[in-house]
Structure prediction request, 249 residues.
Amino acid sequence: MSAQPNPEPNELAFRRVLLKISGEALMGEQNYGIDVDIARQVAGELKAVRELGVEVAVVVGGGNIFRGVSKSAGNMDRSSADYIGMLATVMNGVVLQDALEKLDVHTRVMSALNIPQLAEPFIRRRAVRHLEKGRVVIFAAGTGNPYFTTDSAAALRALEIKADIILKATKVEGVYNADPMLDSTATRFDCITFQEVLEKQLKVMDASAISLCMDNNLPIVVFNMRQPGNIMRVVKGEAGVGTRVSLRQ
Prediction:
């Protein structure tokens, strides 16, 4: 793979980003599992962003396979169900790694659970070094603890690697005052504060993740992943893409 020249500093709004992508996003239009075409699309966009000189980390969910608080968990013990959900995120992480490496993007999966045959253990300094060397780093298995979502894992990992921002990939254009899938009159916020998200109980990320970002002044951009090129637009700081969540509007 030929080396790409780094852009001028003013071309990029962020130098190190963490992308939070749900398991459901990797499911595409299917009812279950992984749509490899979606994985390839995400990998292609991450490659383009990486070639700009942006350091890229990813936290992937597992809801397309198993979610600890879902109906499929039934009356299973919550801790056991959550650990199964963590294993699902490792599966998704390895799929995304494969898609990236097929595009000649050096990638590492780092797991909060010890699964040496599939992933490296998460070690903060090693993760940062991978990023500095230009590798995409995929964080799997959440925080490694039950009762914590992958939203919380995204906030935690972003702070640990000192990311400039969290990019929250969704199926809609940003944060709305109501569910746009159910309410045609719902309006999108261009920007909103963490406090407003908590007070209005908006479904951006879970409350613990929002509080963690608010306490550490880590902004979030919520955007539509289904629109090709949106990851690049967010990284370049283009106006009108998604909703920015921060301490102040």
Notes: The longest helix spans residues 78-101.
